[in-house]
Amino acid sequence: MLDLELLSQLVAFNKYKTISETAEHLLITQPSVSRNLKKLEEQLGVKLFNRSVNRISLTETGKLAAKEAEALLEASDNFLTTVQNFDQRNNQLAISTVLPGPLLWLMRHYQTLDCNYNFSFHEQLLEPEQIVQELLTLKSKIVITTEEVNDDRLESFYLGAEKILVRIDQFNPLASKTSVTFKELERLSFLVYQDIGPWRQLTEKQIPNAKFLYQKDIESLDELTKYSNFPVFRSNLTIASQAHEEKDDRVPVAIDDPNNRIDFYATYLKEKSKSLRPLLKQISQAFSKL
């Protein structure tokens, strides 16, 4: 069976004419190119190259082989594109996450994305140790993670960063400030959604002397927020997804602190890279504007 990678190197050699230029274009070593072209010649059982001291060129047969190889590679790409497009139109794109903000945004805005996927969302947050199994068992095609996953079978694509602000009662002295640090929030008591993934550990670490009044669901959190003056956290993503009803007199104050950031990635099977990357680029561009 013909190796398409070998054919692609033949096509590249036909275009660039030398082993060194071909190797530079393909980002591989010159000895690798030489071995692979010789291997292809042996597989085909014909003479593809004229070789002399410090020079190699295509025979007439080699030129024909390069032309046919280019057509075959194009047909292969068309085949792959056709099958993948069919799969996109007819297959669910299940997405899970380890933190809620990016998923909340996607749940609200996925219909604005230019793609043919049928989206489904798993709202129950995953633990980091569940990510690999979630993808390998095809329960999800994408898991939103807070770091690149170290597994040869997976690939991670950077999507963006989430940052939080604090909404403070208008009569609190901090409400008059344009920004605060985590340290300035010490000794306050906060109403907080319970299932916030890595944000829970981050805020508890950065504001060690604060009290966090965790609520199990967003509806309960918003209800308590309306009838109390406890400060609450919001993020650039939860605001953009309109996850909360803001019916109070609290003032939004930015948190200007180097620790106020969680980067997040889309992690997926490497074999899905070509079909998913156009969509992920769209999502990344949308997040960069928030």
From TrEMBL:
InterPro entries: LysR_HTH_N, WH-like_DNA-bd_sf, WH_DNA-bd_sf
GO molecular function: DNA-binding transcription factor activity; transcription cis-regulatory region binding
Keywords, alphabetical: DNA-binding, Transcription, Transcription regulation
HTH lysR-type domain sequence ranges: 2-59
Similarity-based family: Belongs to the LysR transcriptional regulatory family.
Protein's recorded name: Putative transcriptional regulator
